[in-house]
Amino acid sequence: MTDEPHGDDEDGLVDRLEVIEGQPLDARADAYAQLHEQLRRTLEGDDGHGR
């Protein structure tokens, strides 16, 4: 395993995290919760549209 970037997806996540970090604390908490849910759905293969 290497420490090299994995492409545009990783860059997009880093950019999104930087935006979140610049927000006020209450907005930051909501943004992290939304990001967590999106990542969970992606990892579990759920596109969010139901079956």
Explain the overall architecture.
The structure is a single chain. The chain is mainly alpha-helical and 51 residues long. 67% of the residues lie in helices and 0% in strands. It is built from 2 helices and no strands. It has helices at residues 8-21, 25-44. The relative contact order is 0.09.
Short structural summary:
The protein contains 2 helices and no strands. The chain is an all-alpha fold and 51 residues long.
Task: Outline the fold blueprint.
Layout: H1 8-21, H2 25-44
Order of helices and strands: HH
Distance between the termini: 36 Å
Biggest sheet layout: none
Unreliable parts: 1-5
Structural class: mainly alpha
Shape descriptor:
flat
Indicate the percent of residues in helices.
55-70%
* Beta-strand fraction estimate: under 5%
Mean of pLDDT: 83
Rg result: 13 Å
- Put simply, the count of helices is 2
Give the strand tally. 0
Keywords summarizing the entry:
single chain, 51 residues, flat, 2 helices, 67% helix, 0% strand, disordered N terminus, mainly alpha
